[in-house]
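tool_call: predict_structure(chain=1)
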Amino acid sequence: MHPRLRTVLPIAIAAFTFASCSKDDAPAPEPAKSGNEILSSTRWVTTVVTDSVGKDVTAANMGFVGLADYLPNGNYVFYNKDGTPRGDEGYYFITPDNSKRILVSRTRNYTRVVDVVKLTKEIFTYRVVNGNGATVNVEHKPVQK
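tool_result:
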Protein backbone atom coordinates (compact mmCIF):
# COMPACT_ATOMS: atom_id res chain seq x y z
CA MET A 1 0.00 0.00 0.00
CA HIS A 2 1.27 3.44 -0.87
CA PRO A 3 2.46 5.41 2.21
CA ARG A 4 0.17 8.37 1.48
CA LEU A 5 -2.79 6.04 1.10
CA ARG A 6 -2.04 4.61 4.56
CA THR A 7 -2.35 8.10 6.00
CA VAL A 8 -5.29 9.40 3.96
CA LEU A 9 -7.44 6.25 4.04
CA PRO A 10 -7.98 6.13 7.85
CA ILE A 11 -8.80 9.86 7.88
CA ALA A 12 -11.32 9.42 5.04
CA ILE A 13 -12.96 6.44 6.78
CA ALA A 14 -13.21 8.34 10.07
CA ALA A 15 -14.72 11.39 8.34
CA PHE A 16 -17.26 9.24 6.48
CA THR A 17 -18.21 7.37 9.67
CA PHE A 18 -18.64 10.61 11.62
CA ALA A 19 -20.76 12.19 8.87
CA SER A 20 -23.02 9.18 8.46
CA CYS A 21 -23.53 8.75 12.24
CA SER A 22 -24.41 12.37 12.81
CA LYS A 23 -27.44 12.00 10.55
CA ASP A 24 -28.75 9.17 12.77
CA ASP A 25 -29.13 11.63 15.66
CA ALA A 26 -32.05 13.40 13.96
CA PRO A 27 -35.41 12.13 15.25
CA ALA A 28 -37.32 9.97 12.81
CA PRO A 29 -40.69 11.41 11.81
CA GLU A 30 -43.59 9.81 13.65
CA PRO A 31 -45.57 7.54 11.33
CA ALA A 32 -49.06 8.77 10.54
CA LYS A 33 -51.73 7.10 12.64
CA SER A 34 -54.85 5.61 11.13
CA GLY A 35 -58.24 6.99 12.04
CA ASN A 36 -58.95 3.84 14.08
CA GLU A 37 -55.74 4.39 16.09
CA ILE A 38 -56.63 8.02 16.75
CA LEU A 39 -60.17 7.21 17.87
CA SER A 40 -59.04 4.41 20.18
CA SER A 41 -56.32 6.55 21.80
CA THR A 42 -58.66 8.31 24.24
CA ARG A 43 -62.22 8.67 25.54
CA TRP A 44 -64.06 11.38 23.60
CA VAL A 45 -66.61 13.87 24.94
CA THR A 46 -69.01 15.89 22.80
CA THR A 47 -68.20 19.59 23.07
CA VAL A 48 -70.71 21.15 20.66
CA VAL A 49 -73.16 20.38 17.86
CA THR A 50 -73.42 23.06 15.17
CA ASP A 51 -75.68 23.58 12.16
CA SER A 52 -74.60 24.32 8.59
CA VAL A 53 -73.82 27.97 9.40
CA GLY A 54 -71.96 27.22 12.65
CA LYS A 55 -74.78 28.04 15.09
CA ASP A 56 -74.71 26.03 18.33
CA VAL A 57 -77.64 23.58 18.17
CA THR A 58 -76.43 21.22 20.91
CA ALA A 59 -79.62 21.48 22.98
CA ALA A 60 -81.75 20.29 20.04
CA ASN A 61 -79.40 17.36 19.26
CA MET A 62 -78.80 15.71 22.63
CA GLY A 63 -78.98 12.27 21.02
CA PHE A 64 -75.46 12.91 19.69
CA VAL A 65 -74.08 14.27 22.98
CA GLY A 66 -72.12 12.15 25.43
CA LEU A 67 -68.97 10.13 25.95
CA ALA A 68 -67.55 7.63 23.49
CA ASP A 69 -65.04 4.84 23.95
CA TYR A 70 -63.66 3.52 20.67
CA LEU A 71 -61.65 0.45 21.63
CA PRO A 72 -58.55 -0.83 19.81
CA ASN A 73 -60.36 -4.13 19.05
CA GLY A 74 -62.95 -2.31 16.88
CA ASN A 75 -65.75 -2.17 19.47
CA TYR A 76 -67.36 1.02 20.73
CA VAL A 77 -69.44 1.91 23.80
CA PHE A 78 -71.41 5.16 24.15
CA TYR A 79 -72.29 6.80 27.48
CA ASN A 80 -74.39 9.74 28.57
CA LYS A 81 -72.41 12.83 29.52
CA ASP A 82 -72.72 11.89 33.22
CA GLY A 83 -70.99 8.56 32.47
CA THR A 84 -74.04 6.31 32.72
CA PRO A 85 -74.36 3.68 29.97
CA ARG A 86 -76.42 4.73 26.97
CA GLY A 87 -77.13 1.15 25.91
CA ASP A 88 -75.42 1.63 22.56
CA GLU A 89 -72.55 -0.74 21.82
CA GLY A 90 -71.22 -2.30 18.67
CA TYR A 91 -68.49 -2.19 16.05
CA TYR A 92 -66.85 0.80 14.38
CA PHE A 93 -64.24 1.58 11.82
CA ILE A 94 -62.82 4.53 9.94
CA THR A 95 -62.33 4.09 6.20
CA PRO A 96 -58.67 3.91 5.10
CA ASP A 97 -58.80 7.48 3.74
CA ASN A 98 -60.21 8.73 7.09
CA SER A 99 -63.26 10.21 5.33
CA LYS A 100 -66.05 8.08 6.89
CA ARG A 101 -66.84 6.57 10.28
CA ILE A 102 -69.07 3.50 10.21
CA LEU A 103 -70.96 2.24 13.25
CA VAL A 104 -72.78 -1.08 13.47
CA SER A 105 -74.79 -1.15 16.69
CA ARG A 106 -75.28 -4.57 18.25
CA THR A 107 -77.65 -3.27 20.93
CA ARG A 108 -79.77 -0.81 18.94
CA ASN A 109 -79.72 -2.59 15.57
CA TYR A 110 -78.63 0.21 13.26
CA THR A 111 -75.76 1.00 10.92
CA ARG A 112 -74.67 4.62 10.51
CA VAL A 113 -72.15 6.04 8.05
CA VAL A 114 -71.06 9.63 8.67
CA ASP A 115 -68.59 12.00 7.03
CA VAL A 116 -65.49 12.74 9.08
CA VAL A 117 -64.92 16.51 9.06
CA LYS A 118 -61.76 16.50 11.19
CA LEU A 119 -59.87 13.75 12.98
CA THR A 120 -56.71 14.46 14.93
CA LYS A 121 -55.59 13.52 18.42
CA GLU A 122 -57.03 16.87 19.60
CA ILE A 123 -60.43 16.88 17.87
CA PHE A 124 -62.93 14.55 16.22
CA THR A 125 -65.79 16.08 14.26
CA TYR A 126 -68.27 14.26 12.08
CA ARG A 127 -71.21 15.42 9.96
CA VAL A 128 -74.58 13.69 10.23
CA VAL A 129 -78.20 14.27 9.27
CA ASN A 130 -80.28 14.54 12.46
CA GLY A 131 -83.83 13.30 13.06
CA ASN A 132 -85.28 16.51 11.59
CA GLY A 133 -83.37 16.12 8.32
CA ALA A 134 -80.87 18.89 9.11
CA THR A 135 -77.15 18.39 8.62
CA VAL A 136 -75.14 19.01 11.80
CA ASN A 137 -71.49 18.78 12.81
CA VAL A 138 -70.80 16.95 16.07
CA GLU A 139 -67.50 17.94 17.67
CA HIS A 140 -65.62 15.89 20.29
CA LYS A 141 -62.44 16.42 22.25
CA PRO A 142 -60.41 14.04 24.37
CA VAL A 143 -61.56 13.70 27.98
CA GLN A 144 -59.07 15.43 30.25
CA LYS A 145 -57.82 13.06 32.92
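agent: The beta strands are 43-50, 67-70, 75-79, 85-94, 100-105, 111-119, 124-129, 135-142. Proceeding to next step.
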